[in-house]
Amino acid sequence: MINTSPASPPRATFVPGPGYEEMLHPRSQARNNLYRIGWHGVPLELPSHVTGVDARIVVMMGYTFPSGSHKVGATYSIVMEAEKDGLISPERTRLIGPSTGNFGIGTAWTSFQKGYDGVVVMPDGMSPERTARIRAYGSDIVFTPGTESDVILTIEKAKELGQEPDTYVLAQFENFANYRFHYYVTGTSILEKVGGRIRAFVSAPGSAGTLAAGDRLKERFPESLTVAAEPVQCSTLYNGGVGQHQIEGIGDKMVPLILNVNSLDRVAMVDDQMCVDLLHYFVTVLNYRYEFGISAMCNVIAAIQTAKTERLGPDDVVVTVATDGLDRYYSYMDRLVSRTHEESKRLGPDRVHALEAGAGLLDTTSAAQKARLYDLKARTWKTWYDDAYLASMKHDAFWDKERARVAEYDAR
Ligand SMILES: Cc1ncc(COP(=O)(O)O)c(C=O)c1O
To answer: Residue 320: CB within 6 Å of ligand 1?
Structure first.
């Protein structure tokens, strides 16, 4: 008999999906929606009158992913690897995604597509656009107190929920599937889609998954710098600073486990209000009505700072990402509705152009900086990982091994 009760919708048993190579180059148009996960849009090169620098600033557009942000690639990859490892299946497992938003939206989207029950653990201070989207995809939400900078509470709560039987925590800050997705799929997509000599890759971490693309770019362009951007208001990588800020998705008061400290070359500090102001200019004056969110502005400002500081010229390319689009931030723009175009320009690009080369950019290539960052990393993660494992990350061989597993998973 067909069960028509709305309380117990039919559950998919197992819905296959792509491996890493197939996310990069889908073989079929779309055997199911999961095959749309990938960088299928066109990168956007910002005009030099907007950036104020000679170097080319090219942005990979994350809003084109299903669910509206490339974070779904990380969520899906963690699920895909766990399925191949035989750890989870839709009939018995509840997926738990700790997140400040987009990874949670990705958790809800992936759970829905693959037939899992999904639970998103997120701070109660995130934008209402995010919670509405998670509920629309059918996942439950467990709230923890605070905002973006309180993400550690979501990790702790998720670990607590993960003690319950038949649960699996999609641990984006520590699961190397996140690193592998961006290393292989994002990194190779950049190499295939962005022409010219890549001199830097800029991304503001969250989980630091996206920064892994920098490791792939260094294979083709060994001189390419990997730059992590963060809010001045929460300058954890820069100087251990912690604080509240307005850039949802980044600046989480820690060094994520999956951040490859060895290959991190610079940390760029960006004022959070400058990001909101530049987004207002992009939306109202340049007429980008859906392509960019706030963290994209942080990335763009840090990319401009990198180009200025490194004195890059017209043949040089700085690549960065727009993780999501405006649909998550209407509430921020509504607050600035009375602002004129002239004010928007003065507070947006004029202020960015006036930034001095070198200001807020820290070189992290020295042994002392590496030691400081590894120490910071251990402070967060020693509760859950032993010293020997954390110490093994200081060797490049650790990261070589994690990258080699892309092919291992694809072979299964
Ligand atoms: C809007 C936004 N920007 C940037 C990031 C950071 O990306 P990653 O976690 O790959 O470092 C996130 C992560 O959730 C995000 O939601």
So the answer is: no
